[in-house]
Amino acid sequence: MITLENVSLRYAKGDPWALREVDLDVTRGEFCFVVGQSGSGKSSLLRLINLEQEPTGGRVLVAGHDLGELPHRRVHLLRRQIGVVFQDFRLLSGRTVAQNVAYVLQVLGAGRHEIRQRVPETLALVGLQDKGRRLPHELSGGEQQRVAIARAMVNKPPILLADEPTGNLDPDTSSEIVAILDRINRAGTTVVMATHDTTIVDQFRKRVVQLHQGRVVRDQAEGGYREVAL
Amino acid sequence: MRPGFLLGEIANGLRRNASMVVSVVLVTMVSLFFLGIGLLAQAQVSTAKGFWYDRVQVSIFLCTPDATEVASCSEGAVTPEQREQIAADLESLDPLVTEYFYESNEEAYERFREQFRNSPVLDSIPQEAIPESYRVNLSDPTRYEVIRAAFEQAPGVESVEDQREVVDKLFTFLGVLSVGALALAVAMVVCAVLLISTTIRLTAWSRRRETAIKRMVGASAFSIHLPFILETVIATVAGAGLAVALLWATVRYGITGFLSELLAGESGLISLVGPRDLWLITPFLVGGALLLAVVTAWLALHRHVRV
């Protein structure tokens, strides 16, 4: 589903490498934690998958697209196959929870009937079926992140990227959020989550890809956060 | 993107940026108004030129009793024989002379009184001081010199005037007006372009979160840009509409109404631009404004909105 072959990235000539000779293969339906310290290249890796950033070298393949060969006018078709969740939620403050989720479908040209059906369905998936009329500021951080997950999933993308989704949340809420991601993954969606939340990684025991100074230093199935001392 | 959602986005955008939208409307209106005035002034020059050049081209003024200082008038006022001789000479100049009219002293005085009805000099000018004349049309107005050479020293002729020299001063004035208005229009169009560009930048900034979400979920570049472009088009069309309304009011009440009434005594002397001339330039004004708005918006979007 996601393949990186010998991928390197640096943002400007003379800068240190953000990613260096990364090889990674995430298969369909897999759940993968990408861990590492701040600046280790976790977010850069996700940006490459979403084609927010082009690699300096190497090849990236996502959902059947070779991103190096993908013409600019077709990039949006790739992005329709990828849901993204961020640490800071990025909700539209003037719109209700349901409107935030519906916005994606409206942007993509879905009909009224489809929106009426899919929005409550997706809110139920994240446990917010009763909060559709609330505004984001009336919700807790955990609830706002659930809205962000609903928004990322309402278009049913086969891939979900989560960049530090628990970074602003307390441990219990973080656990609830990752449980939702886990549920989504079990339904068939490939999930790649960048995190430095030790407890979460240790609790869920998924595949762990560890980055250090832009290089993959560990790729372990059902791993914990600190299997290898650095 | 569905039309209903698109309209909602546009309405939202216009409401949130009301002050910037109003400034785009006003700057577009002022720039197109000046452009319209410049074009109408040019239309006036060409209309009036055609009108004048088709009519009176050369005037042959005949001797008045007081014009004895002119050699050809040394015998006093023109005699009927001299007048007939001049008419015969004009006939012989066919085909250069296509038409000529005789204006008697009474007719000339009547026209003079009408022309200067509000002037205090009117009473101090006796009727005899106003010369009778022949008004001559030429098949080729540039060959005025032929007429001048033939009649300037002829007995009974006080002077020969090329009327185009007189009206050309008016045309020069209109030309300057037209160039001035067009120069102002160019400056205002530059303002409009810069303002549209700045408005897009500010709008893009205020809507950066929506735009980021659209990008993230896979909206095409076209559907991200479309609301911005349509908002600019709406503001420009509103500005163009107001400019055309203002030009219409200027033509209707300023020219067709006021100016033609003012010149009523000169009826037949000048043809003024009217609403029809405005309707002829309107498609160019509106079309040009739209084209400029779309191109400016498109360039600004490529610079300020990442897709």
From TrEMBL, chain A:
Q: Where is the signal peptide?
A: none
Please list the coiled coil stretches. none
Q: Which domain of life is it from?
A: Bacteria
Mainly localized where? membrane
Any GO MF annotation of the entry:
ATP binding
Q: Where in the cell is it found?
A: Cell membrane
Q: Which InterPro entries match?
A: AAA+_ATPase (IPR003593), ABC_transporter-like_ATP-bd (IPR003439), ABC_transporter-like_CS (IPR017871), ABC_transpr_LolD-like (IPR015854), Cell_div_FtsE (IPR005286), P-loop_NTPase (IPR027417)
One GO term under biological process is: cell division
Topology within the bilayer: Peripheral membrane protein
The ABC transporter domain covers which part of the protein?
Answer: 2-230
Keywords noted in UniProt: ATP-binding, Cell cycle, Cell division, Cell membrane, Membrane, Nucleotide-binding
Outline the subunit composition.
Answer: Homodimer. Forms a membrane-associated complex with FtsX.
Q: What does this protein do?
A: Part of the ABC transporter FtsEX involved in cellular division.
What family does the database annotate? Belongs to the ABC transporter superfamily.
**Designated name of the protein:** Cell division ATP-binding protein FtsE
Q: Which organism is it from?
A: Ornithinimicrobium pekingense
From TrEMBL, chain B:
| Keywords on record | Cell cycle, Cell division, Cell membrane, Membrane, Transmembrane, Transmembrane helix
Q: Which residues form a coiled coil?
A: none
Fill in the subunit field for this protein. Answer: Forms a membrane-associated complex with FtsE.
UniProt organism field: Ornithinimicrobium pekingense
Q: Where are the transmembrane segments?
A: 21-43, 170-196, 217-249, 278-301
Name of the protein in its database record: Cell division protein FtsX
The protein's role, per its UniProt record = Part of the ABC transporter FtsEX involved in cellular division.
Domain ABC3 transporter permease C-terminal, by residue range, is: 184-301
Sorted alphabetically, the Gene Ontology BP terms of this entry are: cell division
> Record keywords: Transmembrane helix included?
yes
Which family, according to UniProt?
Answer: Belongs to the ABC-4 integral membrane protein family. FtsX subfamily.
Q: Which residue range or ranges hold the FtsX extracellular domain?
A: 56-160
* Chief location category: membrane
- On whether Lipid metabolism is a keyword of this UniProt record, the answer is no
Species lineage: Bacteria, Bacillati, Actinomycetota, Actinomycetes, Micrococcales
Q: Which cell locations does it reside in?
A: Cell membrane
Q: Which Pfam family name is an example for this entry?
A: FtsX_ECD
* Topology class, membrane: Multi-pass membrane protein
